[in-house]
Design a protein that fits this description.
single chain; about 140 residues; mainly alpha; flat; disordered C terminus
Length: about 140
């Protein structure tokens, strides 16, 4: 519903219920320890969420005002529509940080960063710094 899909709320809730039920059953029956599977899942979520947080923090620090009406406007008339509904600098920053975080998690598991569980910190810092370097959140105005 948030993405603008035209479905009845009951259908969206039923789909969410089914995904949650199947996911719970997978965790319950396919893994020896629910705790280990859950911690692995949370760890996988940490990298994309902190990569998003890095961009978000830079935006919150650099931008002085937001247009409430434009934040709720999902059409091309919004000040936040950018190019086809995507802010390329944000997308690039997030994807690069996501790649770096998962690189440490899966390709470099013996590195100091992975051994200490700091992949999320790499994603946070890299996304924020890259967004800043790309000129993200150009300042006071909402129109760029």
């Amino acid at each position: 519903l948030t993405m603008g899909m035209k479905v009845r709320r009951i259908v969206a809730v039923a789909a969410d219920l089914m995904v949650s039920l199947v996911g719970s059953m997978v965790f319950l029956f396919l893994f020896e320890s629910f705790y280990d599977a859950f911690i692995g899942f949370i760890t996988l979520l940490a990298i994309p969420l902190t990569a998003w947080l890095g961009v978000f923090l830079v935006d919150m620090i650099k931008r002085t005002t937001y247009s409430a009406d434009d934040l709720l406007d999902m059409t091309s008339r919004s000040a936040y529509w950018y190019k086809g509904g995507f802010e390329v600098r944000v997308l690039v920053s997030w994807l690069v940080a996501l790649g770096a975080g998962f690189l440490f998690k899966f390709a470099l598991p013996d590195s100091f960063i992975a051994q200490q569980g700091l992949e999320w910190l790499v994603a946070l810092l890299l996304s924020g710094l890259l967004y800043l370097a790309l000129g993200g959140a150009k300042g006071a105005g909402v129109k760029e």
